[in-house]
Predict the structure.
Amino acid sequence: MDILMGVGRAGLKPSGRPDLLLVLLPQTCKASFLFTRNHFKSASVLYSQGVFGGRVRALVVNSGNANCGVGKEGLLHAELMAKKVAERLELEEEEVLVFSTGVIGKPLPIGDVLSAIDSACDLLEPLDLKRASEVISTTDSFPKYDFLKRGRLEVFGFAKGAGMIHPNMGTMLSFVFTNAELEEGVIERLHRDVNERTFNSISVDGCMSTNDSFGLISLGLIREELQKVSDAVEEVSLSLAKKIVQDGEGATRLIKVVVKNASLQLKAKMIAQSVALSNLVKTAVFGKDPNWGRIVAAAGSTPFPIDQFKIKLYVGNHLLYDGKTHLKALEGARKYMERAQEVEIILDLMEGKESWTYYSSDLTYEYVKVNAEYST
């Protein structure tokens, strides 16, 4: 049985490209959804949070309008979108989830959106991951999707996001599917664990979105060892998360920050996040400058203490600091940064066994231009 999709145009994108996606699952499926923790949530997030009860049959996503900051009519519009899908496809209304992404503060032209839903329902076809990602994209420069198959196990998904990326469950939507059976409770724990190491460990600009949503859906077609399913879901989720960072508005480099040998996992994550979010580090990477002082300053700015006489700092495989500066290594690090599309920063705390990896992107002139010109 195939997952089906339909596409419509509601005129939400200035380009006139398709801006509405309908995804119809072959049956009611167990699922887990995580939503933004931003207190100023999109009405579509509030609606879907309110109706979701652990099972889903269809998703409807509009792009080009966030359905956020428009008063309580936003909730009514989300409900009308779900009701339209349910009526057209003879589904239970509470099993239809609604998602939106785009400009904040503009009411949805709900008549046009409902007409686009009609069009999507009229022509359903097998899910095309690339096409689905393109339809839900806004400022994205390329589609984000992945498919993994290991034996009988399949995990696949699609996503969007390029700016306002700093998820905490940034604008980010991701939907991941597996053919494996995952029981209620199990799917939620697996989802939260994977989310922490993937979508909750990326940032483009440190700005948390009002619309972030990440869904994991179990089609329940095969039985598979839980660890294998977890590993595959994490691999696909990390692939999608990294694509979002790679497509950071104006970005030219992916930044991978690894903190290792920490005494606490939380400490490792907080330090990695601090380095990854530092605008001084991000601009240094854009300038291909191995400015290690910015990195250790960011590492030392969290509530967790570090021993500046023990830590080791690498850019690529170039040791720049281990209690003292290695000036001769700077030129090699600079050349590495000039050619690397993914710049790896490794901070070894030399105190324990815990580690964390966080992904970010460089901060460029183009980021300012894109966001100065993008209507809010």
